[in-house]
């Protein structure tokens, strides 16, 4: 059916398992001495401090910038036998992406599949936070309650690094589809620079931000950022609010030793919105702005992240890095999330969920890198370990009777007072990982890059209520690896191939139930071939990758009893990805990427209606098999820039049987900026210019759509001092 919806303008009128820091430093000294013993001191090799320089629209694909996400050796993408993309923070902000999830979805092969519960991504045929890992400054954010809520604000990002394909060899179980690493702004040794931003737009949206950083003297430098955002939202009662504060202090004890103490705080209260029901399979314009959640709904996330980083260079050939960290997250839900339309003009509202949980993650990561010679050949090697302890407690209550309400004269009401929260279970999870990675330069053109990782995960669960299931203590172990080769045909052209193995958690290790603990981790493997090139004197960069991924031992819910799990069969994905960045002239630049894939269940049976039904050959739900992004930037006058972007997401199925699907969509955005003075830039952002109505994700099969942002605008002023 055809839908016509008016533009929405302003609504202003509406006990640590890892070693102690001292022990970690001692272990680092041992590794460093080992490295010094085997290094070739005759080879003059310096590992410089890696400092990314934001270059706005000229960053291209970043093929020659060192990236830590695709390799712990900090190889450039040209040197890495994997698909790695760099998104500069300045470029993200110039394009107007409101969240880091939106920014990541502009990378090749990455699409957004998230909801109000913190957001999620899909990559290479695999969707969700347990298959596309989220990292902050190289440290993984463990999934709890299916949610990862931090980091979320682009203001804090120096850059984002996107690794596509299995990343277990680098970060442990999980990430069979890829890993997204947000690298925050950090203290630098340059002059102090201060910046600020103020923005206002549709739906009474306002944003303010402030940042400052630089060197205080020859030893001390700092970085401080704060950002606050608020919006009334594009649906009824769609308010959202966020606050981020980040501070870091760096001490250069000597040219060889640096210490950095950092703390980040994030408060996120996203829209309490879970979509609208379809009528006869279509979106009805009369429901477009309606929020069927309860009036006193709650979504509230709090994250505190403290880190102490040490970097020590005892010799030119050796670098020791250690990070001791603590993350505490508190998340709360109080919502009615299920809505079904009835032929008599009413809706049935259900899925009343009252959830709260607390997650503390304390750990230590140590690695030592050295350059030397092996069998007479140049060699780079990193060895290290990562250990942490997770303490997780979950409260939950649900089960209130469904409600029948008028769909068009809707009175939201409140959450049922008969439901009160109570402790459901708590877990303690200890993880220990040992890893290594090596690059052997076989010749001037050929290099081998390989890695191994061993993980041990012990989950100890204590049920607080009978309904929570039996207590258990389960240990999972897994070894993953990667071997790849790079052929540098020229300094600007590389061909590569790799084979990698991986493991995926059952549902997220801290959420493992007694029944799920009877199963093994899901396992996976990938083969990939690709080419990367800088061309036309550095004006252009392009990459091409072809891959095959297979995942086995899938964990699914029984179709007849959602409390029963089964481990079945396998799924696979094969596809190609192409990315291009090119400057036609110094004033006209293009960034474009696209992916085509074939994702399938290879061996998949589920029970429905008491009958075993084969889903082999079907496409996994929530996975688009076509996606593309384009961004064109044009400096059409001195001090003036215009940007035009398009995001295409292909058709997605909503269930394992592929009985229904969500149509493909294309969203077009635009920007206009004017550098009024050296210290002042004014910008205009237009989102979803053609007011496309699309489902960002779905609930309850295909009966409920969570709609994306309609047409909207924002104006912003950026100041520098």
- Structural class, by secondary structure, is mainly beta
The Cα radius of gyration reads 25 Å
Largest sheet: 22 strands, antiparallel, barrel
- Oligomeric state of the chains in view: single chain
Query: What proportion of the residues form beta strands (DSSP E)?
Result: over 45%
Helical stretch count?
Answer: 4
Enumerate the spans where pLDDT stays under 50 for 5 or more consecutive residues.
Answer: 1-59
Mean pLDDT: 84
In helices, the fraction of residues equals under 10%
What's the overall geometry? globular
Terminal-residue CA separation: 53 Å
**DSSP strand count:** 38
How is this fold's topology laid out?
Layout: H1 21-38, E1 83-88, H2 89-94, H3 100-104, E2 110-112, E3 121-123, E4 126-127, E5 132-136, E6 139-140, E7 157-164, H4 168-171, E8 178-184, E9 193-201, E10 205-215, E11 220-231, E12 240-254, E13 257-269, E14 276-277, E15 298-315, E16 318-341, E17 346-374, E18 377-398, E19 403-406, E20 423-441, E21 446-463, E22 472-490, E23 493-504, E24 522-535, E25 540-557, E26 565-585, E27 588-603, E28 605-608, E29 611-614, E30 626-637, E31 640-649, E32 652-653, E33 661-662, E34 665-677, E35 680-687, E36 695-699, E37 704-707, E38 712-720
Parallel strand pairs: 5-8
Antiparallel strand pairs: 1-7, 2-3, 3-4, 5-6, 7-8, 9-10, 9-38, 10-11, 11-12, 12-13, 13-15, 14-37, 15-16, 16-17, 17-18, 17-19, 18-20, 20-21, 21-22, 22-23, 23-24, 24-25, 25-26, 26-27, 27-30, 28-29, 30-31, 31-34, 32-33, 34-35, 35-38, 36-37
């Amino acid at each position: 059916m055809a839908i016509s919806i008016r533009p929405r303008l302003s609504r202003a009128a509406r006990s640590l398992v890892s070693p102690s820091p001292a022990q970690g430093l001692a272990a680092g000294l041992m590794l460093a001495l080992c490295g010094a013993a085997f290094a070739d001191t005759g080879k003059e090799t310096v590992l410089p401090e890696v400092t990314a320089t934001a270059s706005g629209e000229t960053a291209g694909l970043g093929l020659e910038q060192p990236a830590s996400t695709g390799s712990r050796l900090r190889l450039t993408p040209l040197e890495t036998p994997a698909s790695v993309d760099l998104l500069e923070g300045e470029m993200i902000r110039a394009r107007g992406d409101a969240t880091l999830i939106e920014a990541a979805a502009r990378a090749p092969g990455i699409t957004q599949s998230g909801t109000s519960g913190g957001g999620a991504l899909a990559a290479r045929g695999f969707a969700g936070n347990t298959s596309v890992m989220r990292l902050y400054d190289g440290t993984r954010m463990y999934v709890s309650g299916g949610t990862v809520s931090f980091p979320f604000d682009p203001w804090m990002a120096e850059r984002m690094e996107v690794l596509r394909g299995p990343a277990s060899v680098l970060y442990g179980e999980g990430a069979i589809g890829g890993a997204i690493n947000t690298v925050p702004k950090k203290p630098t040794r340059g002059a102090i620079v201060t910046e600020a931003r103020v923005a206002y737009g549709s739906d009474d949206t306002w944003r303010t931000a402030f940042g400052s950083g630089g060197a205080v003297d020859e030893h001390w430098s700092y970085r401080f950022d704060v950002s606050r955002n608020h919006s009334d939202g594009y649906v009824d009662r769609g308010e959202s609010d966020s606050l981020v504060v980040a501070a870091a202090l760096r001490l250069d004890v000597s040219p060889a030793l640096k210490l950095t103490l950092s703390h980040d705080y994030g408060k996120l209260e996203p829209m309490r919105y879970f979509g609208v029901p379809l009528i006869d399979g279509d979106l009805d314009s009369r429901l477009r702005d309606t929020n069927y959640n309860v009036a006193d709904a709650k979504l509230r996330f709090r994250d505190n992240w403290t880190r102490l980083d040490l970097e020590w260079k005892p010799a030119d050939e050796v670098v020791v890095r250690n990070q001791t960290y603590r993350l505490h997250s508190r998340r709360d839900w109080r919502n009615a999330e299920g809505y079904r339309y009835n032929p008599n003009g009413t809706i049935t509202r259900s899925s009343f969920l009252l959830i709260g949980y607390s997650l503390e993650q304390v750990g230590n990561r140590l690695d030592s890198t050295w350059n030397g010679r092996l069998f007479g050949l140049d060699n780079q090697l990193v060895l290290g370990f990562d250990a942490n302890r997770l303490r997780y407690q979950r409260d939950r209550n649900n089960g209130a009777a469904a409600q029948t309400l008028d769909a068009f004269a809707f009175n939201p009401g409140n959450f049922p007072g008969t439901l009160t929260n109570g402790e459901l279970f708590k877990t303690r999870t200890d993880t220990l990982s040992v890893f290594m990675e090596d690059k052997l330069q076989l010749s001037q053109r050929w290099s081998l890059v390989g890695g191994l990782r061993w993980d041990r995960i012990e989950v100890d669960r204590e049920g607080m209520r009978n309904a929570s299931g039996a207590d258990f203590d389960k240990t999972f172990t897994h070894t993953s690896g990667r071997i790849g080769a790079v052929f540098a045909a020229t300094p600007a052209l590389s061909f590569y191939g790799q084979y990698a193995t991986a493991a995926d958690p059952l549902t997220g290790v801290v959420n493992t139930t007694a029944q799920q603990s009877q199963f093994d981790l899901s396992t996976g493997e990938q083969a990939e071939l690709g080419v990367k090139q800088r061309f036309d004197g550095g004006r252009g960069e392009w990459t091409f990758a072809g891959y095959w991924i297979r995942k086995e031992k899938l964990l699914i819910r029984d179709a007849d009893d959602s409390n029963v799990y089964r481990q079945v069969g396998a799924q696979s994905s094969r596809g190609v990805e192409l990315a291009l960045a090119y400057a036609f002239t110094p004033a006209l630049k293009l960034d474009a990427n696209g992916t085509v894939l074939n994702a399938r269940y290879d061996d998949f049976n589920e029970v429905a209606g008491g009958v075993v039904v084969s889903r082999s050959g079907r496409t996994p739900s929530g996975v688009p098999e076509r996606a593309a992004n384009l961004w064109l930037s044009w400096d059409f006058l001195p001090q003036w820039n215009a940007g035009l972007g398009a995001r295409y997401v292909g058709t997605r199925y909503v269930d394992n049987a592929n009985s229904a699907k969500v149509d493909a969509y294309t969203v077009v955005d635009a920007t206009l900026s004017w550098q009024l003075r050296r210290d002042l830039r004014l910008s205009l952002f237009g989102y979803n210019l053609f007011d496309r109505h699309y489902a960002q994700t779905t609930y309850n099969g295909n009966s409920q759509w969570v709609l994306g942002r309609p047409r909207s605008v924002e104006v912003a002023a950026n100041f520098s001092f």
